[in-house]
Amino acid sequence: MTEVIILAIALSMDAFAVSIGLGATKQHSKIAPLGLIVALSFGFFQGVMPIIGYLGGKGIVGWVESYTPWIAFLLLFFIGAKMIFDSLSEGIEENISKITYRILLILAIATSIDAMAAGFSLTLIPVNPFIACFIIGVVTFAFSWLGVLVGTKGGTWLESKAEFIGGVTLIIMAIKILITS
Q: Where in the cell is it found (predicted)?
């Protein structure tokens, strides 16, 4: 269960970083309670996408069972590396002039694509995948809500650091999966 919580925190860091940026834009007049809407959107997609990755992973595990730790390692490693790279570049939310529901939906899906890939690694963790995805969704909900609050208070300096830490955590998890398998 510890691995699931660490995975949930690491995966939620990109949603946290984007939430900070969204809160900082102060361009959200069309979305009333921005923190709640962002948290629900990001939490929902971060919770659903790993199930898709898990089911896809279960479907191919029989064919590539001996390579499963390597596949999980590569997926988590590249997701972590992408998060680190993204933390060093400007975020998409800086280019958004108005936050609409459509923009929010696109951001929620974009920040959860890595959760779908990470869902494959759930085939290697001895935990109910639905409980794991619920935990991932709840943790992302909490971090997204907090991110909007931090962003509205002017805490954008934390934005890239959160994504960087999440990326490093995923790389560490990838190495752990490879070593323990």
A: Cell membrane
Phi-psi region of 26 (alpha: psi -120 to 50; beta: other; left: phi over 0): left
Instruction: Quickly list H helices, 67-158.
Output: 68-88, 101-119, 129-152
Question: What tens digit of pLDDT does each residue of 48-101 get?
Answer: 999 998 888 777 766 766 777 787 788 778 888 887 887 777 655 455 556 778
* 51-78 b/e (C-beta count within 10 Å ≥ 16 → b): bbbbeebeeeeeeeeeebbebbbebbbe
Location of structure tokens 């921005």: 34
The residue with tokens 């390597």 is 70
Cα torsion angle, 93, 13, 82, 55, sign: negative
